[in-house]
Write a structure and sequence with these properties.
The chain is mainly alpha-helical. It has six helices and two strands, in the order αααβαααβ. The longest helix has 31 residues. It starts with a helix and ends in a 7-residue tail after the last strand.
C-alpha cells in the first residue's frame, strides 16, 4: 500500500516541480516584455501541451540521470526495468510518455494499481515496475 500512496504523491511532486518551472518562465517572460512570448501562448491548449512537454522532459531527464524522477526519489522509489539489466533510453521514453496517461486517467490508474502486481498502465506498456529502494544500514 505504501508504494501506491508514494507513487501518487511522487507524481504530484513531479507535476508541481514542472508547474513551478513553467510559472517562473511565464512570469519572467511577462515581466520583461509580453512580446517575448510566442503568439501560440495565447491559446490555452497550446499552454497545456507545452506544459506536458516540459513535464515529460523533466521526468525523462531526471530518470536518465538518477534512475528515478524527483518525486520517486523523495519517496524512496526506484524503477526496475523488467528483462533488462540496465535502464535503456527507449524504456525511459516510453515509460514517461505513457505516464501522462496515468496522470490523466488517474482513477483508472489507481484501479489497475490495486490489483495483483500493482502495475499501472505505464508500467504495463513500458515493461517496468516501481518498487521501494532497499536501504542499507549504516555501519
Amino acid at each position: 500500500m505504501y508504494t501506491l500512496i508514494a507513487r501518487v504523491a511522487g507524481n504530484l511532486v513531479d507535476i508541481s516541480v514542472a508547474a513551478i518551472v513553467y510559472m517562473v518562465y511565464l512570469v519572467a517572460a511577462l515581466a520583461t516584455d509580453r512580446s517575448v512570448l510566442p503568439d501560440w501562448m495565447d491559446n490555452r491548449y497550446a499552454l497545456l501541451i507545452s506544459y506536458l512537454v516540459l513535464l515529460f522532459a523533466i521526468t525523462t531527464l531526471t530518470e536518465m540521470r538518477i534512475g528515478s524522477t524527483l518525486g520517486q526519489s523523495v519517496f524512496s522509489l526506484q524503477v526496475r526495468y523488467l528483462g533488462a539489466s540496465e535502464r535503456k533510453l527507449r524504456f525511459i521514453y516510453l515509460r514517461n510518455a505513457t505516464n501522462l496517461i496515468d496522470i490523466f486517467a488517474f482513477p483508472i490508474a489507481i484501479l489497475v494499481a490495486i490489483f495483483p502486481g500493482r502495475k499501472t498502465i505505464s508500467d504495463r506498456l513500458s515493461g517496468t515496475s516501481v518498487t521501494r529502494k532497499h536501504r542499507t544500514p549504516y555501519r
